[in-house]
Each structure stands twice: as C-alpha cells, then as structure tokens.
Amino acid sequence: MTNRKQTDTAVVAGATGMMGRQLVRLLLEDPAYQRIIVLVRRGIGISHPKLVEKQVSFDRLESELDTSVLKDADVFCTLGTTMQQAGSKEAFRKVDHEYPLALAKAAMQHGAASYVIVTAMWASEQSWMFYTRVKGQLEQDLLSLGLPRLVILRPSLLLGDREAESFGDRATASVFRLIDPLLIGPLARMKAIQCKDVAQAMVKMARESGPAVEVLESEVISLRTSKKNSPTKV
Hints:
Pfam family, one: HIM1
Strand content: 15-25%
Distance between the termini: 12 Å
CATH topology: Rossmann fold
Strand order of the largest sheet: 3-2-1-4-5-6-9-10
Number of domains: 1
CATH superfamily: NAD(P)-binding Rossmann-like Domain
Domain Thioester reductase (TE): 12-65
Mean pLDDT: 85
Number of helices: 8
Number of strands: 10
Order of helices and strands: EHEEHEHHEHEEHEHEHE
C-alpha cells in the first residue's frame, strides 16, 4: 500500500479532448485541488481562478515545461487520437505512446505523487489490433518506470460530446446503445461507458492511497466511485 502524498495540484495532458474536457471540469469543481495546470498546444477556452494553461510541445516536453509543476502533483493523462485523425501508424504511435510515456518519465523524475492514465479495453502487447497493441506497449513501458503510484483505466467505447464527431463515431455509438441490453455476464465488460464516469474514477483514484499499480477494467470503472468493487492489482 502506497501512502498518498497530499497535494492540491493537478496536471492534465490532453485537456482539449472529450475526456480531458470532462476531467478538467471535475477538477475545477473539486475543493481538494487549488491549482489545475493544463498542458496544451492551444488554449482550451476556459477561464477559472484555479486554471493555469501551459503551452508546450510534447516533442520538446523537457525543454519547454517548467518541471517544478510536477513536484507532488497528481498527473492525469488523457492524450490520444485515432488512426483517421493521425493519418499514419507512426503519427498515431507518437500521440498514444511516445507523448504519454515522455510525460510519465518527467513525472517520475520530478517527484509527482501519482500518474493516472486512460488506455483502452483489451490493451495488450500481444494484441493483433494495432490500436490495442500500442496501448498495451504503453502500459508495459509505464510499469517499467517504477512510478510511486500508477493508475491505468481501460474503458470500452466512450460516450459523450465529441468536438469533431464523425459519422463512424455516431454509428458506433448507436450500435452500442442498441446492443447494450444484450451485454450481460462475460459480455458486460463491453458495455459503452460514459466519459464522465471515467473522469470521476480518475479523480477518485488519484485522491486515494493504494498499491503502487492499479488497473481498472471497463466494467468496474463507474462502480469504483461507490466503492462497491475493487480494481485489479498487478
């Protein structure tokens, strides 16, 4: 069991995405946090006394970021893209593997209290799917760092308001809503999950003491906020 460092600072990477926007809103409302630092390439369009924007390029994170902000902070990573947005496997890997790993290394080096990240259901180094294989490789690289507290969330399809929702996004969400009642027993883990539930679990896990590594599968993420279930420990 890791004794939690008390902190009033949260650092968020990926604040412009659907998950990141929801997470920032929750953090701003949380009285435990007095400073929310978002690492962005462009402004997120929110004005709040607790919010601090740091414009950085993740290709040059160490040189552009004042790493003192990571000291004793809870670091949240919601960085991610799609193959359609990235345009190539190399570009996808950069956003979904290299950038989160660079942030985690900085968090480890500069004394962050915790590192909380969203990956994906079925993330595995051995996956035949490129997307989940990259996520699995990222998880293994994060585990090798020896972070004082690492929390990994593996949600299924995320439901919420997307800034640039494609026809494919809408179609997939519609299909998941239709089949949701049929996903019972072992299939329950495939149920789509609300983005806000994942964000709430991220904040809750960051505030708690726990083992050095915890992994939350999709089917327990929303229940985790009520303490009905315990996450997987690895």
